[in-house]
Amino acid sequence: MAAAAAVVEGEVRRDMWGQEYRTSSAECAAALDAYYAAFLSFGRGRVAAALRAAAADPTCALAAAHAAHAAAPRDPAGAAAFLAAAAGNLGNATEYERAVFGTLSAMVGEERNEEVALERHFELLKKFPRDILSLKRAQLICFYLGKPELSLKFVEQVLPENQDQNYIYGMLAFPLLELGKMDEAERAARKGLAINKNDVWAQHNLCHVFQQECRFREATEFMESCSPSWVACTSFLLTHNWWHIAVCYLEAESPLQKVLDVYDQNIMKELEKSDCEAAEVYLNALGLLLRLYVHGHVHPAKERLTTFLDALKEESIWHVEWLLDLLILWALSSTDELKSAHNMLESLKSRVSSMDKDRQQVMQKAIQLAEAVYEFGNGEHKKVFDILGPNFDALGYKMIGASDEQVDVFNEVWYTVLISAGETSNAIDVLGKQIRKREGSPFLWRLLAKAYSLDGRGSDALVASEKANALQVAYTF
């Protein structure tokens, strides 16, 4: 009888960081380890590993909780069933399992609440500071809420206990760079790569630093040398890392074909894989096409956009990510798919109206940006200016779940809108401030030259144009 009871209750095991949980299944334990590793490395097998763990031992509360989180984006009903299974096994669960269940129920349960989830992650990490999987989840919540300061606080809270950990320094680097602490972010990313040169998140974060500092050659050479390690990455991170390379080529004003080759061969080719997540590819593809469009490469951008326009009208991929929704909205409106674009805009408004009042207030800025993107696609630049007002800065719109580099395209939209709407003095002021942050951007200097020219300041326009040309020559690679 004692042996039978042990099987029912599950053997107490320790995961790779020492946290205790119960399972009588070695297969479940191995699958949980695989899930941890895939989650932290952005591996494409992480959902399958979580589901495998739950199937191997239906009595393991930890496995069921992780399966609920893994299934939630694609299978809400399945996630609810896994969460119920986890709740039903909490009686025999360890303290750690109950803490994980609490965080995940706040993320994917009926009473989901991001702020509650963050509070519970904070408490969990106080008790279990080696649990860098929960740290990663907490940082993801912070990212989608636009809270880099809190993300940094989370990682700093547990850093002393994790200085030997494989992924901790990449996780430290990201909020640092989002807070503009580039030197510290670079040191953290390099420290992570010294431990594991194939840490794709540390690679990605070091590229962010290079890109922000206009070290474009360094960024492309480094990332292309790292690209063999991305083979097992999710569709998102694989194509996102190539998106960074393409944007660096574009910002350096390299031959356009280099940008298009990355788009065609390294981003869109991902769609041919049987386990591809198409929405994740569209996010990076559209982000690049909008940049091409804003940088004046309208024809190649629209030509490539038409190849998957029908897929963007499928509402099944709407509302996966706020940033993707905004990019789809631009794609639809810029190709005269106005009915679908209008439906998307109304759907976004309805989505926000169903939120609690505090969240509604925050997300009104996202709706404002959506309306502006819709009008930009229509070519109504004056309306874009009227919607956003004279003091727009995309960095204040991080609640759409985007990094500085991802939202920066909306600043580029804004600069072109200011110029085309006749707000040249405002454009000169805004571009001057941005150039002081990123003096090495030829595109910014070219926009400044255009604004000067329209403002009747020919000599200043000539200086700005010559600066852009000199940078382009210096970046030739």
Automatic annotation (TrEMBL):
It comes from the Eukaryota. Keywords: Repeat, TPR repeat. The keyword Chaperone does not apply. SUPFAM superfamilies: TPR-like. The keyword Ligase does not apply. Belongs to the TTC38 family. This is Tetratricopeptide repeat protein 38. It comes from Urochloa decumbens.
